[in-house]
Every structure is written in structure tokens, then in C-alpha cells.
Amino acid sequence: MNKWENNIRRVVPYVPGEQPVGDRLIKLNTNENPYPPAPGVLRALQEMDYHRFRKYPDPAASVLVESLAEYHQVGADQVFVGVGSDDVLAMAFLTFFNSGKPVLFPDVSYSFYKVWAELFGIPYETPALDGDFRICTEDYKRENGGVIFPNPNAPTGLFMPLDQVRKILDGNEDVIVIVDEAYIDFGGVSALELLSEYENLLVVRTFSKSRSMAGIRIGYGVGSPRLIRALNDVKYSYNSYTMNMPSLALGVAAVKDQAYFEATTGRIMATRQQAKVRLRELGFSFPDSMANFIFASHKRVFAEQIFEALKKEQIYVRYFKQPRLENHLRITIGTDEEMERLYKFLGEYLG
Questions:
Q1: Which one of 38, 165, 217, 301 is CB 3.0 to 4.6 Å from 84, fit for a cystine?
Q2: What stretches in the chain show pLDDT beneath 50?
Q3: Residue 168 and residue 191: Cα distance in Å, rounded?
Q4: pTM of the model
Q5: Are 346 and 45 in contact (CB under 8 A)?
Q6: How many other C-beta atoms are found inside a 10 Å radius of the C-beta of residue 84?
Q7: Side-chain-side CA neighbours of residue 57 (13 Å)
Q8: How many CB atoms lie within 10 A of CB 239?
Q9: How far apart are CA 220 and CA 237, in angstroms?
Q10: How high is the pLDDT of residue 306?
């Protein structure tokens, strides 16, 4: 090994879901929305003046920030936007988790949390979910350097009621608490309504799931002005121009079409409810998901076998080969037609 290699930062990276290509495939592995973005997004794209691309975008992303502030009925100084919620969360780790004490997040949770902690040299501990995959709020009352958890959780899909979220906040007045709400639009009540009570709360959302814009990369955080100001200070010290012009314009168009948003999320929730019935009939069990996926385990056939069999049929679901998860499949909710093809194959394969 060359001496200069000793100076290279070495991390175990986050492994994103597989991105297969093909005409017949059914992609139920990365929790994307099966429906297109709002019609206004297409109109905004068609009306875009490409001559403007020669100039830098607004570093404050004002047009999108103001649109989101109006949508959530908060001040513009309470909104921070980034290149997907992953960007927002990474900035939050870098900004808020600097005490030297361990950050707390569940052992079964979004696997990027561990990656960011190790990348930024942040100590962490992972309190275990209980036997039903639920967060134990008492585990978050120990001394710590911050708390983060998804709600609904991933990959389980379970939603933690706000009275339980409040218990975690009440036990952590001296640190930042981040609630990652990537899937909140598919069920549950947002922690946004707690912002007026807790200045140390940051709620993070994404356009990738409920707004069908995973390919555009828009995420945002909502919190007290002091938190948002700190996030912006770090952003401007790292990369001032995180949001490109198309993302800003298309993001605003997506926010404006509330009727389409409610229609598509409603369709996904209806399909999810039907999926629970059909998958139970096929011998699966799972937590009661409030997200756009189901975290399923079969009573007879091991998850990896089902995963490989589905893959041969060009039906892609997510399999996590790790402790506590290795006999589960995370199945994204697709269109009714896609789900019917899934049920048909599973019925034949499982006998």
C-alpha cells in the first residue's frame, strides 16, 4: 500500500436500491411513486427558458422556500431546502450533532443514519426496537448528543403517534430532535404541529415519494428560525448553490397542485389496504404499514428465496440481508396492475 493511501477516508457506503432497466419489469424496490408528477410540473418544464441556465440559481432557493412556507403556514425563515431529504439530513448531522455524545436512532431504521454518523465521526447508539418493531420511548431518555428517527419508520412502515413523539421531545430538551417524515403523506399525523412548542425540533420531508419527483431531488426541513439559520450557515460554508433552477421551478409547481397530490396519495393508500388483504391470503404477515410499502415475512418460505424468484420474473422488491431483517421483504406499493402481477406470481410460486 502506498503511504498516501493512509490519508484516504474509508467508510462503508450506503447501498441504494437496485435500479434495473427493461420493458417488462415491475419496480417495487425503492419506494418510488408509481404515478407521474402533477400536470403543472410538466407545464413548468415545457415553459422553462433554457437561456437562464447560464446563470447561477438563487442560493437562497427563495421561490421554493416561500412556496413551502405558505403551504405549511410557517415563516420563510423556518424552511430549509436541499437536494433530496438525504442532503437535508446530511446537513443536519453536520450542523447539529457535534457534542461528542452519541446520537440515538433505532437499530432498525433508515440505514443512511449510520453512514452519515461514521462519515462525520459522530458517535452513535442504536436502541433496539421491541419485538413488534416499535420504538421504546424510554430508550431515548438517556444522555445523548441528539435524536433522529423516521416516522413512519423505514423499513417497517409503522407510525408512532404524536403523544409518543412528544415523550421523546420532552426527554430531550437540550439536544436537537429530528423527525424524518419521508412517508408521512401516506398516513399518520405530522410532527409539524409540534413546532410551536419545541424550538429544538426539525421535521424533514421529501418530494421523492408522495410528490412523484425522486428524479428531481428535492427535500426540505421545517423548524425554528434558529435551526434553519444554523443549517444555512453550514450549507453556505459547503456549497452555496445546492438547488438548480429546474428543481426550484418544478418544485413550486408540484406544491401548488394539492388536488392531484391528494388523489395520487389516496390511490396508493387504497392499493396498500388491498395489498394487506391479498398478501395475508398468500401467507404473509407484516406490521400495519402507514407508508407506501409493506414489510412482509412469509410463514413458510424464506424471504431471500422469494426475492430471487421474483427477480427472475423481473419483479423487484427490496431484501435486506442483515440481522432482524433477513426474513423480510420490503414491497413498494405500485399501481393496481403491477400489484396484480405480483399477487399472481406469488400465488403460483407459493402454491
A1: 217
A2: none
A3: 12
A4: 0.95
A5: no
A6: 20
A7: 18
A8: 12
A9: 18
A10: 98
